[in-house]
Structure formats: structure tokens, C-alpha cells
Design brief:
The complex is a heterodimer of chains A (484) and B (96). Chain A has 16 helices and 11 strands. Chain A has 484 residues and is an alpha/beta fold. Chain A has a domain at 2-257: Alpha-Beta Complex (Amidase signature (AS) enzymes), CATH 3.90.1300.10. In chain A, α5 runs parallel beside α6, α10 packs across α12 and α10 (302-317) packs across α13. By secondary structure, chain B is mainly alpha-helical. Chain B has a domain at 5-43: Histone, subunit A (Orthogonal Bundle). Classes of the chains: A alpha/beta (484), B mainly alpha (96). Chains A and B meet through α10, α11, α12, α13 and α14 of A and α1 and α2 of B.
């Protein structure tokens, strides 16, 4: 079936005319129509513009143009601004917001000839680990509709798992690509901070946010990363590093690759989860890699450090939503203060307000040193721990999440328990490291993720390690029942 | 450490957020538990450690030529505004 083909296979079929982009687009649109009502993975469907882009791609193909993503349909997380199309960020605040320009990620994929099918559901302003904070309602996990798909890029992950597009985009501030990838059994890639432009990506925590991709394999993710990565003068923290030809780096033996096993990730880890990781390590052993245990002593502090730094940055970033220039405005404001306070109070949901207030508190007089500066100092300790580890090993391996997907509603009343879902993912954001989550097995029928972390700008090596694992295993090919 | 209702009201004011009566107890409880949780950071001694604001330490702000790079998009941008008159954003009267 078309929706199970790799990006390479799709590109070949488009190139030799066995299928057209319009046919492929209709195929995915039909799947969305049939399967999405139960999943709620999309906020906005853009069928008409998708068919127009597909027709334009077919003309380019007919003229002999060949490009890896030309004519292939995707879904963007609704955090990326799309010119002329509603960009809600999962919030009532932006329910009526028509983006006036394209994010760089969107623009690059557009010029590569990609076909956008729609915008994916997400936790409001990317704040959540379960996709339950969306103004548009929770996304359901295709492996079990009673379970969350993870968050914040839950719609992108669920859409990928349900094969509603050939690939999807996401963003990862504290695990928002890797965690939902793990819980939905797909491959997720969070690049190095600064590798992919943040321009036009609605800001949550600017020193942590990074755009990335969900795909059915590391090989597919490599193709997408090659297009979206690279220097962008419009993002002041974009890094001017050459973009390697990622797909060309996938092959090659792992002989001599040094893998670090993160001791702290196994403290108190569920035995079934630990055994999946150890099985994966055996695969790596058989591929010629060596493993060594490493310790990052400050890692246990990464969740509290993150939940100071990220809300602090969010409280500043979200001050732009004031009911004046764009977004939600309350009815009949008494005065300007009332306009600000009620527009924000009514326009933001409960978790967003919680994080804005947490951030306001840790930045306020009397608490700034004790919380914000303290967290930034701990951030350096965590980053130094990683730096020391990467002197001994090439990449680090551990679980992506502590548990498989949990029930919708199970953790939503208890923010600290919810935040602890991010225990294995936030440290990479604090240190700006690239990371991936790969399907590595099942617990009680629900997919689990293997997390790989590497030094800055080691995406090529991570993708190769991931691809070799996926060449030796077939976990990434499993599809949820009803979505095969 | 536990935050009081007055603490939360003050924070909400600083953040320019109206909080409803029914939301207030939720925030008093949950913000208290978050503050307690992040207080864990105090277990580690960080005396001489420099705060790290950015994951790619040493990256400098780039400069660009001081030249016009944007054209005028005012009309397009104002299509998203809740209230506009004669090209200006309309807000409640500030000066009587």
C-alpha cells in the first residue's frame, strides 16, 4: 500500500510515473477522512491547497525535475506558521490567527515540492506531555484509543503512526518529538539546537525549542532533515554549519562505535522497559558496537531545572499575546488592563497559564537567584556531564519514556507527575543535543522507544546508528491494528 | 513551601492573567507543588558555576548590514487584529 512505502520508494514511483502526486495526495486525504475522526490528530485539513500543490509537483515531475521530497505529502505541526492558513498552536488564543508568512521549515519544504495535507493537533503552545492540553481536544493513540499519544507533538506522532502522511513535522522543547514518537511506535528526530531554523515556529522556550521530524524510519528522517536543516539568517540562533548529505551517511558498519549506557536512566526503571533496552544493546553488540556504562551525576536534576528555565522563557515569549495586534480579544473590556488580563485569562488554557505563572514567579524579585539563576547553573552542570561522557563514548543510549502510553485523563490533574514523563528527554534540550527515539518493542501491546543521544551536530552518526538498528530489527515496521 | 491565594493573585497580576474563582484553588495547589518540586535544585552546590543561558555557549549575536530588508506588510498583518481603524490598532481609551 502507498502509505507503507518509504520516502525513497515513493520518490522512485513518482519519478517513473507509476503514481502521480495527485493520486498519492488523494490516497492520504482518503485515509485522513476515514481514520482521523477517531484520532483527532488534525486541527486543520488543507485538502484543496494540497491538491493544488500536488498538481504543481506533477508538472515539475513531468518536466523532468527529480528531488527527494517532490510531490510527497506531509502534515505540519500547527506550531509552524503557514502563510494564509490558520496557525492555532493548539490554543483558543490563536483560533482565528491566519499566519501572514511561512516558517522557514515550511518554506523549505514547500520549495522542495512537498505537499502539505494539513496542520496537526498539539498540546497548547507545545506545553504538555500527553496532547490533552489542546483547545481542540485530546489526540488519541492509534495503538489504543483510550491512551494518550504523548505530547506535545501528539497529533504529528499519531498521524505518522496511523499512516496519514508520508512524514510529519514536530518540535521538541523537552521531549515533544521523542516522547510521542516512543508512545506511538514511530521514529522521531530532534536535531541539535540551532540545526533547523526556529523562524516562524511559535516560541515556547527559545533556548530549548528545536524543530524536527517524525518518520517511519531513520532513513526517511535523514531525507527530511537534509531539506529542513541549515543556516537561516532569520533565526538569530541558527548555526552556520554545513549540512551533510545525511542519507549518504546511513550505510557503513558500526564496528568500533562506542555506546554509553546511562546509569541514571536505569535507576528505578521498570524491568520490562529495561529488558527492551538491553535487547537493543545486544543488537548493537552484534553490529560491532562496544558498550560501556557511564554516569551523568546531575541528570536527576534535569526535570526541575527544565521546569524553571522553560516556564521562565515561556512567560516572556507569551507576553506578546495581549489581545491588541492578533489573537483572541475578550468581549467588552472595561479598560486596557482588563483587556490584557481577560484576553489572556480567557485565551490561554489551564496549563499554559500555569507555566506562565511559574515562569513569572521564578523571575520575580526575591526568587530570581534562588530559582532561575540556580536552574541555569544546574543546566551548565548537566551540559558539562554530557561533555565529559562524550569524551569516552560516541553516543548514549537509554529509554525514551518511563512507561508506555498512559490513559487519557490519568495524569492531567497532577502537573508534577505529568512533568516526570519528561525525565529521560529534557536533559538533551538543556544541553542542546540531538536525539532520536526508535521503536524497540512493546509492553502490553503498546510501543516503547529506544533513545539515542549524541554530541552537537552528530545527526549523521545518530541516523546511521538508528538506520543500522532498523536494518537488523523490524520494530519500526509494525503498524497499529486497523491502520496497516 | 506553600503559596497562598494572595501569592497567586500577585503572580497572576504580574503576568496580566485573569484567574477565575474556580481556577484559583487549582493554581494555589499546583503552583505550590511545582515550587516544592523545583526547590530540589538546592541540593547541589553551584557556588562558582556560571549560569548557562544558551545551549551553544560562545555563540555570538550576528550583525547584519544596517539596510532595509522588509517591505511594508501592515495591511496584511492587521487582518489578524481584533480591531483596527485607519491603519491603527484600537484599544480602550487610556487617557480620559
Amino acid at each position: 500500500m502507498l502509505h507503507n512505502l518509504t520516502l525513497g520508494e515513493l520518490a522512485d514511483r513518482l519519478a517513473d510515473g507509476r503514481i502521480s502526486s495527485v493520486e498519492l495526495t488523494r490516497h492520504f486525504l482518503a485515509r485522513i477522512e476515514r481514520l482521523n475522526p477517531a484520532l483527532n490528530a488534525l486541527i486543520t485539513l488543507t485538502a484543496e491547497t494540497a491538491l493544488q500543490s500536488a498538481a504543481a509537483a506533477d508538472l515539475r515531475l513531468a518536466a523532468g525535475e527529480r528531488a527527494p521530497l517532490l510531490g510527497i505529502p506531509l502534515i505540519h505541526k500547527d506550531i509552524f506558521c503557514t502563510d494564509g492558513i490558520r496557525t492555532s498552536c493548539g490554543s483558543r488564543m490563536l483560533d482565528n490567527f491566519i499566519a501572514p508568512y511561512d516558517a522557514t521549515v515550511v518554506a523549505r519544504l514547500k520549495s522542495a515540492g512537498a505537499v502539505m495535507l494539513g496542520k496537526a493537533n498539539m498540546d497548547e503552545f507545545a506545553m504538555g506531555s500527553s496532547n490533552e492540553t489542546s483547545y481542540y481536544g485530546p489526540v488519541k493513540n492509534p495503538w489504543d484509543l483510550k491512551k494518550v499519544p504523548g505530547g506535545s507533538s501528539g497529533g504529528s506522532a499519531a498521524a505518522m503512526a496511523a499512516r496519514l502522511a508520508a512524514y510529519t513535522t514536530g518540535t521538541d522543547t523537552g521531549g515533544s518529538i521523542r516522547q510521542p514518537a516512543a508512545l506511538t511506535g514511530v521514529t522521531g528526530l530532534k536535531p541539535t539546537y540551532g540545526r533547523v531554523s526556529r523562524y516562524g515556529m511559535i516560541a515556547y522556550a527559545s533556548s530549548l525549542d528545536q524543530a524536527g521530524v517524525f518518520a517511519r524510519s531513520a532513513a526517511d528522517a535523514a531525507r527530511v532533515l537534509k531539506v529542513i536543516a541549515g543556516f537561516d539568517p532569520l533565526d538569530s540562533t541558527s548555526v552556520d554549519e554545513p549540512v551533510p548529505d545525511y542519507p549518504a551517511l546511513l550505510e557503513g558498519p558500526l564496528t568500533g562505535l562506542r555506546i554509553g549506557i546511562l546509569r541514571e536512566f536505569f535507576d528505578g526503571l521498570d524491568a520490562r522497559n529495561a529488558s527492551l533496552i538491553h535487547e537493543a544493546l545486544k543488537v548493537y553488540g552484534s553490529l560491532g558496537a562496544t558498550t560501556v556504562e557511564v554516569s551523568l551525576p546531575h541528570l536527576p536534576l534535569s526535570v526541575p531545572a527544565y521546569y524553571v528555565v522553560a516556564p521562565a522563557e515561556a512567560s516572556s515569549n507569551l507576553s506578546r499575546f495581549d489581545g491588541v495586534r492578533f489573537g483572541y480579544r475578550c468581549a467588552d473590556p472595561r479598560d486596557l488592563s482588563d483587556l490584557y488580563e481577560r484576553s489572556r485569562g480567557e485565551g490561554f488554557g489551564i496549563e499554559v497559564k500555569r507555566r506562565i505563572m511559574t515562569g513569572t514567579y521564578v523571575l520575580s524579585t526575591g526568587y530570581f537567584d534562588a530559582y532561575y539563576l540556580k536552574a541555569q547553573r544546574v543546566r551548565r552542570l548537566i551540559t558539562d556531564d554530557f561533555r565529559a561522557a562524550f569524551e569516552k563514548v560516541d553516543l548514549l543510549i537509554g529509554p525514551t519514556t518511563p512507561t508506555p502510553a498512559f490513559d487519557i485523563g490519568a495524569n492531567i490533574e497532577d502537573p508534577v507527575t505529568m512533568y516526570l514523563n519528561d525525565i529521560y528527554t529534557v536533559s538533551a534540550n538543556l544541553a542542546g543535543l540531538p536525539g532520536m527515539s526508535l521503536p524497540c518493542g512493546f509492553i502490553e501491546g503498546l510501543p516503547m522507544g529506544l533513545q539515542l543521544l549524541g554530541p552537537h551536530f552528530s545527526e549523521g552518526q545518530l541516523l546511521r546508528a538508528a538506520h543500522q538498528f532498523q536494518t537488523a530489527t523490524d520494530w519500526h515496521t509494525h503498524a497499529p491494528r486497523g491502520y496497516e | 513551601m506553600s503559596l497562598t491565594r494572595q501569592d497567586v493573585e500577585k503572580i497572576a497580576h504580574l503576568a496580566r492573567l485573569s484567574i477565575t474563582e474556580s481556577e484559583m484553588p487549582v493554581y494555589v495547589t499546583s503552583l505550590s507543588s511545582i515550587v516544592n518540586f523545583v526547590t530540589e535544585l538546592s541540593v547541589v552546590e553551584t557556588g562558582a558555576i556560571l549560569p548557562m543561558a544558551h545551549p551553544l555557549d560562545g555563540q555570538h549575536q550576528r550583525l547584519r548590514r544596517d539596510a532595509v530588508s522588509e517591505s511594508d506588510h501592515r495591511e496584511k498583518y492587521q487582518l489578524n487584529a481584533p480591531s483596527v481603524q485607519a491603519g491603527l490598532y484600537v484599544v480602550p481609551r487610556v487617557i480620559e
